[in-house]
Amino acid sequence: MEKIFASIIDNKNRIERDYKDCSDFLLREINVCGTRCIVCVLDGMINSLMLSQMIMSPILNHDFESENPCDFFEEIKLKVVNALEMSECENFDDVYFYLSSGFAAVFVNGVSKALVMGIQGFEKRKTEEPSNESNIKGAKECFTETLNDNKAVLHRRIKSPKLKMKQFKIGNEVKTSVAVCYIKDVADMRLVADVENRILSAPVDDLCDYGELAEFLDSDIKSYFTAVGNTERPDTLCSKLSEGRVAVLVDGSPYAVYVPYLFTDSFSTVDDYNNRPFYATFNRLLKYFSFVISALLPGFYVAVGTYHQELLPASLMYTVAAAEASTPFSLMQEAVMVLILYEIMREAGLRLPKTIGHAVSIIGALVIGDAVVNAGLVGAPMLVVVAVTAIASYVIYPLYESISVLRIVFILLGGSTGIYGVMLGVCALCVNVTSLNPYGVPYSSPISPFSRKSVADTFYRAGWKKLIRRNVRVQNLRGADIDDD
Predict the structure, then answer these.
(1) Residue 230 bridge partners (DSSP)
(2) Signal sequence: where (predicted)?
(3) pLDDT at residue 470 in the model
(4) Within 13 Å of residue 356, how many CA atoms lie on the same side as its CB?
(5) Burial, 26: exposed, middle or buried (Cβ in 10 Å; 0-12, 13-18, 19+)?
(6) Which of 72, 303, 424, 483 has a CA 20 to 30 Å removed from the CA of 386?
(7) Which residues make Cβ contacts (< 8 Å) with residue 19, sequence separation at least 6?
């Protein structure tokens, strides 16, 4: 990183060379009491009124006490400008980072550093209702793409100086601001240090969103399940922080990521804590049942229809046999073909513009589904199984990616080895889930190792009095040892 020159001419030439062909770069040279200064900003990133009232007018109208460059610089910093955000830079890379963040930079002839002041005025999206984590009774706000706004939302909800936010710059070329958030005396400092080390050691040149960073935070990217959670809801993130987790905010991303993320986290929603315990428990059990259905139903149907027809009632067995006899494919081939066709239509509906995306997915499902059955390519029972599976998978959307892969695996196991293969796959899946230990916390906790105290918010939702007394933190879960990771 090249240091700032003492000569104002050298600094001006260097900056103008670096920002050549940048039409939004503005530089003005001024002479104050015989001392040459330059002020640099990026048009569209700053508030012009703040630039005039807080920087330009005070500097031009102030009666400086000394003509010494260093004293002149300090007087600007301490007595003249009244910006709340202010910092000194000694190299050009830091100056360019601040300019791109909505700051103004002031250079003084004879001083080998620059003064940067925050006067942000760029356009940003207003807080809106969450689009992917909708709820009925909870808060209706979500994160935006602006890091400072997201930090402010957290501070508004957690009104305590114990909420810490450490900010870093990630990337060699595109320097992206990243904030590590945690609650002091609640989060384990070993967990905080581990997250910071992973972020600082991430070999990224261009960090544009949270997904790339989440992969470096994941302890085992080869697993079917992720150990890094994400949310667009401030209330959800605050509850995770109060459990001793560590969150990461990325400038430019409307999502926050947090660690460690456990298997049972996928089955709880904000509405669970706004509904009465008995109804929240019913919904949570429904989610666990939907997970089993969405992952195992196609494979189980293929296994039973191919190898274990005697397990079916006579009327259903005849229906399955008649449907299979009228198609040229085996049940395993049918299941894989229909699932792939479903994923194609889902992806098309997702990527197309909203005005036609839903129409394409609905019409495609109705027309193609009816056509393949009438043409005898796929049996009607198989379409019913795939439809039920697809709907069930959306009940637990955080696990959708994992379920999509597992579904195909279980179909192949069921079509090749029957129920025995499906059960073997279930055992292998259980071993995989229980063997994961992200950040020293068992991924399957509090189910395995079992914790009676923590399970009050797992399969069922206990009353608030019991939940408040429980006060469970991730580092205190049974089997947790953050130092082992």
Answers:
(1) 257
(2) none
(3) 60
(4) 4
(5) middle
(6) 424
(7) 25, 27
Q: 358 pLDDT band (50/70/90 cuts)?
A: low
- What's the half-sphere exposure (Cβ side, CA atoms, 13 Å) at 440? 18
Structure tokens at 302: 């293929």
* Tens of pLDDT, residues 99-108: 998 999 999 9
Tens digits of residue pLDDT in 459-475? 877 777 776 656 678 87
Q: Above 70 in pLDDT, residue 28?
A: yes
Half-sphere exposure of 423 (CA within 13 A, CB side): 4
The whole model's pTM is what?
Answer: 0.82
Q: Where are the beta strands (DSSP E) in 6-160?
A: 25-32, 35-42, 86-89, 103-108, 114-118
Distance between CA atoms of residues 483 and 485, nearest Å: 6
Between CA 292 and CA 273 the distance in angstroms is 24
Closest among 473, 465, 421 to 446, alpha carbons compared: 473
* pLDDT above 90: residue 291: yes
| Cα–Cα distance, 41 to 121 (Å, whole number) | 11
Query: Per residue, what are the HEC states of 226-292?
Result: CCCEEECCHHHHHHHHHCCCEEEEECCCCCEEEECCCHHHHHCCHHHHCCCHHHHHHHHHHHHHHHH
Q: Which residues have CB under 8 Å from 109's CB, separation 6+? A: 6, 7, 8, 35, 36, 37, 69
State the average pLDDT over residues 136-154. 88
Written as six digits, the tokens of 263 are 């298997």
The CA angle 139-140-142, to the nearest 5 degrees, is 105
How many helices and strands, by DSSP H and E, does the chain display? Answer: 17, 10
| Neighbour-count burial for 153-184, b at 16+ CB within 10 Å, e otherwise | bbeebbeeeebbeeeeebbeeebbbbbbbbbe
Residue among 48, 16, 17, 47 at smallest CA distance from 29: 16
The angle at the Cα of 94, spanning 92 to 98, to the nearest 5 degrees, equals 115
pLDDT higher than 50, residue 201? yes
Supply 12's token pair. 């001006």
Task: Tell whether the model's pLDDT for residue 451 goes beyond 80.
Answer: no
Per the CB < 8 A criterion, the answer to whether 234 and 141 are in contact is yes
